[in-house]
Design goal:
468 residues; 6-stranded parallel beta sheet; alpha/beta; 44% helix; 6-stranded mixed beta sheet; Rossmann fold; 3 domains; homodimer; 17 strands; 20 helices
Chain lengths: 468, 468
């Protein structure tokens, strides 16, 4: 097994084969790299454009005057073996093969090229990522494969993806939801290094507190199980499998030449290794959000705080369906609520229907949260932030929304109970996005629907219960 | 049963009890009303403010110089019986009681007040909507109960809601997704008129082509079943029940004093009456979108068009899980695709992974769609619109996105097969919203996730199959 330390901590990066026709996608994405960035390009017509980007170009890897920690190879498939050979000879820290057209095409030629590359890399002990992938994204070091990915920030989620798009979307959509990667690996066909190798690395990576994994199939199932078991013993691991159905499994063959693991077997693996399973990017982001921003609940009894009665009903259905208990509050709580709660157009037994009470006097929210903090029948709180309030009341009185945020933060500071929020974008998508960013800036978990909140919180509760 | 024709086609509206403290919410919402709007308010302190809004105020309903078709009653609960009495005596077309504080409070006083109002309305044959509700929204006539609701447009969806918030959110979020109501009724406690009455009316309403229903409980189950059966024989009916769980059912009592129908019984009712069931507002909007904008598919064999390989895999899983068949294309199609499709980083057996091919030459999309139109193995098409394309490529070349829209519209014009699109907002929420509005303006169905698209299209296919 090649050592991955250099490639995950690069001080030098070289891109082989970037060109104008592809919009210099690699060199432009890597312009945020904190170390030295080089280009390797033989085509005289391409060199001036590369130099205009301020990147020094060489004719071969060997000509670069310092050792290269990470190589991006973006050449056509016929040229790829020569670059891999060069990587071995120059003892680079690792190489990612963006190049595709190998086993995933189903063509004989692609399969043969792939075999020769694999053989060379294995014999040369080369850390080869891919082929048919996007490689590495390390925000802290400005290593990126897309120009919209964050840089200069240190994240805490390690993400391993057999799909370049899912890896990219996790980094982009995740960032829009306040989640930044420590290290992200898109590994495509995974002919040398595969998911298990990256799991082993991230399990011991001190910057990585949570691991996400998108996988289609593993060459060595036993190794993957061991790596999952090892990783889950150290940090939460959330898995998402592509190719869950017969048709989806056929699609994985054209995508990464993977024989998708049978779903029933995969489910058993997830269960036995103590990982979590999700079925979409949205779920992946929701669950990681819940892991990062919600305290562990002591039990499954939730108090639901809605603005209006209709929402209180469907919010309750959503949580109850996910196994949450929505109990009537303690007698002491009911008595205290009875003193000030507006019951005309409101109710407080749990769920709460509280718009009237909170609008009457904003201090009432603190009062409500205090009562729930003291209620021994309640382990967790989930609060609706209403889009219609967002559209009118909070648009007119932004200080009232700020006050609400302060109340939530103050509760989170003094209480051991998790409190999460739900804000459906509804018809005020721009305002809801702005509000979401305010919540995220304060590290308050906010979900986009009752169902998504209930599901993510339930999955996380299960994971925490299983892993003690 | 009171006749509902006048109240649903009002030429005159009177609001009783609107005031400054509530922001004149009723008079401001109704400023778009196409007929004559009046106010009834006794409080001398409130009258100048009302007249400043340009609304003529009277001291009682009887003083208004013309018959009133629709009354909004926004007085405190103790005053409500007097207004209901006035409505009977003045033979108004109908009245909605925004007033709450009745049986839903669980208090004796509230129950008694409700009983007296019910008795008066029944004896006076008064079309009483509510109490504890938002009443009517008729966009074409500018009848609204929220200032962000559309007006001056004629919609085709009748929506009946036991919850004011769900009714309001359907009209607001629906409008943001291109769906406008013909008539919307929020009926709260439903003590005189209930869901069955509105179903009967909308079943025969020529402006209403689709019916949506949010319900918590029915007083007369047998009548509701008959009304559902009658309505589904004339147009599609999509139902959403609140109080599906024990805890949710408890919440309905505080909300609309409803004893929620047992969920197993409700499921049987839905099945037997040929209605559809959904579980959230998002699902309601998705299904109505699919009904309005997708042609009926001849069968369940779908071709999935994704931009990248990873998306092609999870798009396939999402549709296959919802019962869609994702077959390999016909030999004739495969042969034609083999002539031009880019298989390095792409594939075409179904699902399609087509970014490379379409980017190479935009005409290739028309070619792809033509081949699928001719393929006898395919009944329906679902196409991913990529957020990362939206962020970069289409942002730089908006004409390329316009061309894509033209290709979709041209296909829809020449093909009998439904074609729907999916655009996840991802990290480009503003751009995705803009793109969604462009799609909606062209009556192209666009869903926000693979799962939501697959589910809505499957539900609609079931409904259409069941109802022949």
């Amino acid at each position: 097994m090649p050592d991955l330390t250099r490639v995950f901590n690069p001080k030098t990066v070289a891109v082989v084969g970037d060109k104008k026709a592809s919009g210099y996608m690699w060199l432009k994405s890597l312009k945020t790299f904190t170390g030295n960035l080089y280009s390797v390009q033989l085509d005289e017509n391409e060199i001036p454009g590369i130099e205009e980007l301020g990147v020094q170009n060489f004719k071969s890897l060997g000509e670069i005057p310092e050792p290269i920690d990470f190589v991006v190879c973006a050449v056509p498939r016929q040229v790829a073996p020569y670059i891999v050979k060069d990587c071995v000879e120059n003892q680079v820290g690792g190489v990612t093969l963006f190049t595709s057209g190998f086993a995933e095409t189903g063509e004989e030629q692609g399969r043969e090229l792939q075999d020769s590359i694999e053989k060379m890399a294995r014999e040369g002990d080369l850390a080869l990522i891919g082929p048919n992938c996007m490689g590495l994204h390390i925000p802290e070091l400005g290593v990126r494969f897309n120009q919209d990915q964050p840089s200069g920030v240190k994240g805490d989620v390690g993400f391993i993806s057999q799909s370049g798009t899912h890896g990219m979307n996790f980094s982009l959509t995740g960032a829009a939801h306040g989640i930044v990667c420590s290290k992200l690996i898109s590994f495509g066909n995974g002919i040398v290094l595969e998911a298990a190798d990256y799991l082993d690395y991230l399990a011991d990576d001190p910057d990585t507190k949570y691991i996400g994994l998108y996988i289609e199939g593993a060459r060595d199932g036993r190794r993957l199980i061991e790596a999952l078991r090892n990783a889950t013993s150290k940090k939460p691991v959330v898995t998402w499998k592509g190719g869950q159905t017969a048709a989806g499994s056929r699609a994985t063959q054209s995508h990464t030449a993977s024989l998708a693991t049978d779903q029933a077997i995969w489910d058993a693996i997830v269960r036995q290794t103590g990982a979590l399973a999700v079925d979409s990017l949205d779920e992946m982001i929701d669950v990681i959000k819940a892991l990062r921003l919600s305290k562990p609940a002591a039990g499954n009894r939730v108090c639901l705080l809605a603005m209006t009665g209709g929402q209180s009903v469907v919010l309750t259905d959503a949580f109850a369906k996910e196994g949450w208990d929505v109990p009537i509050l303690s007698d002491a709580s009911l008595e205290k609520f009875g003193e000030f709660f507006n019951v005309i157009g409101g109710s407080y037994r749990n769920p709460l229907d509280m718009a009237g009470t909170v609008s009457q006097d904003p201090k009432n929210l603190d009062r409500i949260l205090d009562i729930l903090n003291d209620d021994p029948r309640i382990d967790a709180l989930a609060m609706e932030l209403s889009a219609t309030f967002m559209a009118r009341r909070w648009a007119d009185k932004p200080e009232e929304f700020e006050r609400l945020l302060d109340s939530i933060k103050a509760f989170q500071a003094r209480s051991d109970k998790p409190l999460i929020t739900i804000l459906h974008p509804s018809h005020v998508e721009a305002a809801a996005l702005d509000a979401r960013q305010k919540l995220q800036a304060r590290d308050i978990a906010v979900f986009q629907s009752f169902e998504r909140a209930a599901s993510a919180m339930a999955k996380v509760a299960t994971l925490r219960a299983d892993n003690g």
